[in-house]
């Protein structure tokens, strides 16, 4: 059987582990885990105190490293989910009430809870998808759209520069940039042209 010192050591170390991990993960899970470890080690470990302490330190270190390396769980408001699914906030609340977010239950009567990415969503077809996967698809589409928008904007800038080159018969440096005196219209064109060239330079550097 374990000595009194061993029992006290387990209690002390398990409390430290619990205090450390309870801030980063589900409190109920770690509270239950701490109790199980306490019961198992204290009651069943017949070895001497030195070996016991060595095993316990290793176990605590492993638990702490696992917690520190764990990926933080993202959570989403109903407004954020509405954007992701392309529906209204009312629709998201209705789906929550219908239980279509498996593993999620409202806390209390208010509607401002955050839904973790670890739940699953039931599609109208009955197919079940992890919410994390739905979010990943949305973010991928968003990135593709941003790339397309950037390409379209670059094309628009190039078209406008080309228009100014045709209008004035050459590059900015060869035309308006080389003039010491310019008309009011040429001043406006020069200002727009320079801004477009700066924007194009920034886009090229950002690649």
From TrEMBL:
InterPro entries: DNA-bd_dom_put_sf. It comes from the Bacteria. This is Excisionase family DNA binding protein.
């Amino acid at each position: 059987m374990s000595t009194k010192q061993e029992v006290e050591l387990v209690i002390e170390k398990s409390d430290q582990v619990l205090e450390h991990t309870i801030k980063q993960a589900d409190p109920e899970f770690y509270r239950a885990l701490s109790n199980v470890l306490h019961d198992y080690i204290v009651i069943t470990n017949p070895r001497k105190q030195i070996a016991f302490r060595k095993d316990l330190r290793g176990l605590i270190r492993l638990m702490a490293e696992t917690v520190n390396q764990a990926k933080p769980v993202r959570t989403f408001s109903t407004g954020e989910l509405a954007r992701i699914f392309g529906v209204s906030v009312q629709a998201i609340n209705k789906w929550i009430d219908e239980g279509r977010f498996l593993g999620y239950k409202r806390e209390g009567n208010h509607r401002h809870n955050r839904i973790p990415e670890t739940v699953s969503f039931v599609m109208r077809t009955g197919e079940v998808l992890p919410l994390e996967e739905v979010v990943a698809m949305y973010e991928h589409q968003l990135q593709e759209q941003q790339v397309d928008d950037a390409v379209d904007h670059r094309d628009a800038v190039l078209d406008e520069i080309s228009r100014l080159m045709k209008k004035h018969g050459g590059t900015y440096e060869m035309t308006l940039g080389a003039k010491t005196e310019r008309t009011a219209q040429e001043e406006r064109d020069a200002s727009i042209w320079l801004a477009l060239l700066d924007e194009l330079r920034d886009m090229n550097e950002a690649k």
